[in-house]
Amino acid sequence: MFRKINRSDAGPQPVSLTVEGKTITASSEDTVAAALLAAGYEYIRTTPVSRAKRAPFCLMGICFDCLVEIDGIPNQKACQNYVREGMRINLQQKAGKLVP
Questions:
Q1: pLDDT at position 12, please?
Q2: What CA–CA distance (Å, rounded) separates 64 from 66?
Q3: Is the sign of the CA dihedral 32, 34, 40, 45 positive or negative?
Q4: pTM above 0.70?
Q5: Helix, strand, or coil (residue 48)
Q6: Distance in angstroms (rounded) separating the CA atoms of residues 89 and 33
Q7: How far is 64 from 55, CA to CA, in rounded Å?
Q8: Distance between CA atoms of 35 and 14, rounded to whole angstroms?
Q9: 15 Cβ partners below 8 Å, 6+ apart?
Q10: How many Å apart are CA 19 and CA 15, to the nearest integer?
């Protein structure tokens, strides 16, 4: 049986973040990918060429299917970033711009 593992002694705290202009609540111990999936997002980016919808796949940072824009920075792996209060997330449409 699977269950969530708490990473802190204080336990998870509710965190508010904005996704595509909509406020959602997540656990402070969730990754961005987990928060988006729990909030009902079926896909979180589209591919550059065919605009195919993509969702988190490996959830451990190997693939690039969970790329999102976090606080204005594109190409962030949703499965490798933990949510934090006030975080702004946009679903990545097509190719994200490269940031130096």
A1: 78
A2: 6
A3: positive
A4: yes
A5: coil
A6: 11
A7: 10
A8: 11
A9: 25, 26, 27, 28, 30, 83, 84, 85, 87
A10: 13
More confident residue, 3 or 74: 74
pLDDT tens string 77-94: 999 999 999 999 999 886
Residue whose structure tokens are 């209060």: 85
Question: Count of H helices and E strands in the chain?
Answer: 1, 7
Residue 73's pLDDT is 93
Residues 94, 51: contact at Cβ < 8 Å?
A: yes
Q: Comparing C-alpha atoms, which of 71, 63, 64 is closest to residue 90?
A: 71
As to burial, measured by CB atoms within 10 angstroms (0-12 exposed, 13-18 middle, 19+ buried), residue 19 is buried
pLDDT mean over 49-58: 91
| Torsion of Cα atoms, 34 then 80 then 75 then 20, to 10° | 30
